[in-house]
Write a structure and sequence with these properties.
This protein is of the alpha+beta class. Helix content is 38%, strand content 29%. Helix 1 (16-31) runs antiparallel to helix 3 and helix 2 (60-72) packs across helix 3 (74-84).
């Protein structure tokens, strides 16, 4: 199962965004996520330059354990405040959890 977050880097914050993402990936993997990675949309019309963070879980139970840790761990709470605040280096556009990934044919 996958969890994704679509973000845009705020102007002047490009050097801060990878640090924040790496910290989020490290914490999530410590809590039980796997294969965390980041993609940038290239030729995507209005979505060009959007970033997609992907977190993988073995199952919904694993996702739940990580989600619980994000609200109970002090370091994760601090990071959540940074991501959600007005001074965050990225703007969150959307997120989703997928048990199946449709493939376009």
């Amino acid at each position: 199962m996958l969890q994704t977050f679509l973000t845009r880097v705020r102007p002047g914050r490009m050097s801060d965004a990878p640090r924040l993402t790496t910290t989020a990936f490290d914490l999530s993997e410590r809590f039980g996520a796997a294969r965390c990675r980041l993609f940038e949309l290239g030729a995507a019309g209005e979505m060009t330059g959007t970033y997609i963070s992907v977190f993988e879980y073995d199952d919904m139970r694993g996702h739940g354990r990580v989600a619980d840790a994000w609200v109970s761990d002090a370091e994760a709470q601090k990071l959540r405040e940074q991501v959600g605040g007005e001074k965050a280096p990225v703007e969150m556009l959307s997120s989703g959890v997928y048990s199946e990934i449709p493939i376009l044919q």
